[in-house]
DNA sequence: GCCAACGTTGGC
DNA sequence: GCCAACGTTGGC
């Protein structure tokens, strides 16, 4: 099982909206970057990821799960752009900020801190465990 | 609001 | 296929 991280500006798509999308989840649209798209293509049903608020908040606020494999992004004018469907799983009991992640040397290599531009990122098992520990998420 | 970092585009 | 120019992202 691989782990992931999804970034979104709360102004365009917030964690509240993600939760409101319910159990069936909704498309993670708008990705126009090959690396991010390739990450989504590699995802499997049930794999989990962090939901990160960029710009405003700059913190990991929740856990999501892949509800549907990569398919053409319905908002794209070019079928090269694909996306998965995501559903909200749980709130992060205590949100983990970018500053906290940067201050933790176990997370020094995390894409979030080293390649902040990438909007859909892989997360290693160790990083997943560490962020969950910091956020008080058990599961 | 500024600007650095990065990805993409397009001329050659 | 190189690389300069440009646009976008996102932290500060």
CATH fold node name? ph1033 like fold
Order of helices and strands: EHEHEEEHHEH
Name the overall outline: globular
Q: Overall mean pLDDT score? A: 95
- Counted up, domains total 1
Helix-residue proportion: 25-40%
Question: What would you give as the CATH superfamily?
Answer: ph1033 like domains
Radius of gyration: 14 Å
Characterize the biggest β-sheet.
6 strands, mixed
> Which architecture would the CATH scheme give at its second level?
Roll
| Number of beta-strand segments | 6
How much of the sequence is in beta strands? 25-35%
User: Which blocks of ≥5 consecutive residues have pLDDT under 50?
Assistant: none
Q: How far from one another are the termini?
A: 14 Å
Number of continuous helical runs: 5
Counting helices, strands and paired strands, the structural category is alpha+beta
């Amino acid at each position: 099982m691989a782990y992931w991280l999804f970034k979104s500006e709360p102004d365009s798509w917030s964690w509240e909206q993600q939760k409101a999308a319910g159990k069936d989840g909704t498309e993670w649209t708008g990705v126009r970057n090959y690396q991010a798209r390739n990450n989504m293509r590699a995802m499997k049903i049930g794999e989990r990821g962090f939901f990160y608020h960029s710009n405003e908040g700059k913190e990991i606020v929740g856990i999501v799960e892949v509800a549907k494999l990569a398919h053409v992004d319905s908002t794209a004018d070019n079928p090269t752009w694909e996306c998965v469907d995501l559903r909200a799983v749980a709130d992060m009991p205590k949100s983990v900020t970018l500053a906290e992640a940067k201050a933790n040397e176990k997370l020094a290599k995390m894409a979030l801190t080293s390649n902040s531009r990438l909007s859909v990122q892989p997360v290693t098992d160790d990083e997943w465990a560490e962020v969950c520990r910091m956020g008080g998420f058990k599961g």
